[in-house]
Predict the structure.
Amino acid sequence: MDLSIPSSAERPAGPPRIAHDRLQRLHAYWAGLPVAGCGVPLRAAFDPIAVPYCLANLGVAEIETPFRVRYRLAGSALEDLYGGPLAGRYVDALYTPALRARVLEGYRRVTAGAAPVYDAPMRLLRSFGLGFLRLMLPLSEDGDAVDRVLVAIYPCDSRLRHAWQWRRRVDVLNWVSGEANPPVAWRDDDRQP
């Protein structure tokens, strides 16, 4: 699988095809912001009051040099989905190794390409009620380089609001695929185990 970052000449023109109303609206707002010298909006131009419909699912990540990603802000829905606080934490200290690699690859794509990145999960994951829709929008603190990323995440299954709900499903999927032991005390209802 080729994970190389396309050059600006190879990137498709126009916005990504976004299959979620709130993410479409967020992208339209971002696309209307004035652009800095590096080709992306300044972080200071982003006004959270303009996007109240997605604040709970929105975060701001800082891109450090050498490449390292730290969440500066994280909405309450993102922290509920993760299962704890995210603000101030580094991506390389979070998540499972496979998920961490995918998350970091998204941040590399958005910073190297200075363009939005939209991800939707494979159909198989959606069929199990798993997966997230993620929109990553580049920003710049000083106008010279992409060093902030606005990230909005929504679960494919809108009933998922807490980490214990989706982690339990991942346990079952891993068990069915033979990659893990049977889950303990798994129930398919909305009460926390």
Notes: Residues 1-13, 182-193 have pLDDT under 50 and may be disordered. The longest strand covers residues 132-139. Strands lie at 58-64, 68-74, 117-119, 132-139, 148-155.
